[in-house]
Design a protein that fits this description.
Shape: globular
Number of domains: 1
Oligomer: single chain
Strand content: 15-25%
Number of helices: 7
Structural class: alpha/beta
CATH topology: Protein-Tyrosine Phosphatase, Chain A
CATH class: Alpha Beta
Order of helices and strands: HEEEHEHEHEHHH
Length: 172
């Protein structure tokens, strides 16, 4: 009985991982993380209607304007028409900039932006940003945050390494 009690106590104490993958029209790799955050990959302009209908208040797009199919201007205009806050934080996965992470952390923690949908092309850059957020803002361990980031879409070893280096340089 004691081992069951210990197991249940540990299960309750551990942070929950990414909750649900969902098929959503116009959004690649959609993951509902919790009540105030969802993440994904490439997002078509029309998919913003569904996000608005589901109560999202903001969209954070990590794609570069030069990426094929990014449609940042069209998405920003449509989001504005829907009353969504649309924030583009260009995050280059080949040459990640710590300033982009600084901006992301400030934007994601702003309660006025919640619930928020965060996306890039595949969700790998989103996963790396989420890894940083979970450790520095939510107090998760790097191991548990990395596990969740990979469930969300982190597939790039260089982006994972960048995120961990960022975390190590910003721990208090």
């Amino acid at each position: 009985m004691r081992s069951l009690t210990t197991f249940l106590a540990l299960a309750i104490a551990l942070p929950a991982l990414a909750q649900t993958k969902q098929d959503r029209p116009g959004i690649v790799n959609f993951t509902r993380v919790d009540a105030v955050v969802a993440c994904g990959g490439a997002t078509e302009t029309a998919a913003l209607d569904g996000l608005k209908a589901d109560g999202f208040k903001a969209v954070i797009n990590l794609r570069l304007p030069t990426e094929p199919g990014a449609n940042i201007e069209a998405n920003a205009a449509h989001a504005k028409a829907l009353g969504l806050n649309y924030v583009n934080i260009p995050f280059n996965g080949q040459q990640p900039d710590p300033k982009a992470v600084d901006t992301f952390l400030a934007t994601i923690s702003n309660k006025a932006n919640q619930p928020v949908f965060v996306h890039c092309g595949s969700a790998s850059r989103v996963g790396s940003m989420w890894l940083v957020k979970r450790v520095l803002q939510d107090g998760w361990t790097v191991e548990k945050a990395t596990e969740e980031a990979k469930l969300i879409g982190l597939r790039s070893e260089p982006l994972e390494k960048f995120a961990i280096e960022y975390i190590n340089s910003h721990k208090k």
